[in-house]
Fold this protein.
Amino acid sequence: MALSILFFCAGLAMLYYGAEWLVKGSSSLARSLGVTPIVIGLTVVAFGTSAPELVVSVVSSIKDKSMIAVGNVVGSNICNIALVLGLAALFQPLTGDKSVVKRDIPIMLGISLYLLLLSLNSRLGRFEGATLFAGIILYTLFNYYMSKREMKRASIGAEFAPHIALQEAAGEAEIEFFASRAKQVVLIVTGIAGVVIGAEVLIDSAVKIMQVLGVSEKFIGLTIVAIGTSLPELATSVVAALRKEMDISIGNLVGSNVFNILSVLGVASLVRPIPIPGGFIASGLLIDYIVMLFVSFLPWLMMRKNYTIIRRHGLILLACYVGYLAYLIAKS
């Protein structure tokens, strides 16, 4: 028991410091590359913190544990928005770039709906996986192109309003900047390793305990594994919110959800087609997909006017997650 507590504390420490390094390295990289922090959050940070979902789903697919592979992604996406974004907003109200509301959340919703359509035949084959994986490549290129265009516009505007540029620079100075590209990369890689390994240490024993208790694969995938693999997003988003890197915090979550569907399920179904035992509707997975779509829509609803998720919104998101957990427990 003492050893388990020691590992738990070590995992928490790795999560916290890994998130700190990841946020600092990512923020510095964004500024030195001349792209907006939201793009780094949507890509580098999101992809890095989604590494546990990728590993879990691919390994589950290889081992023919298809409900863990799918349940992990769906459950993680619900957890990222309802639990992680809710908690981050409680620590610090989150104000995001308007592009999150106008572009990135609608893209996330569209991709989630596309996954639902692909799953209606109760199987994700290699062709479906290829279309998903192609999507993540296009998504990354699109975000980079849009960011460069927006930064170019901002630089032109700054020529005519230099006081605005000074205000933005003052805001950026709130988090430590590292000019060295090598140090930026080391911080990002070390941070990703910290949050991924820390999450693994925390969830490993929990999964084993649930298996011993005879809990179903789907329940484990949607809850214990989903929450565990979302711990990197939780640590990174909360730390980013506390450091007032709002775009990294929100971008991390939206980007992680997009990455989970396009890359995690794309790669997993390319490695081995993923059947849905019992059928998509009969297995109850349709309800989980609908919950995923609903909680993904809520941030858009909350941010559509002033682009901010306040603490009251965070409580609503957390209440949704508690309600969903109660549903899963009652059903299991």
Observations:
- The mean pLDDT is 78.
- The chain is about 85% helix and 0% strand.
- The beta strands are 94-95, 123-124, 274-275, 308-309.
- The CA atoms of residues 101 and 301 lie 9 Å apart.
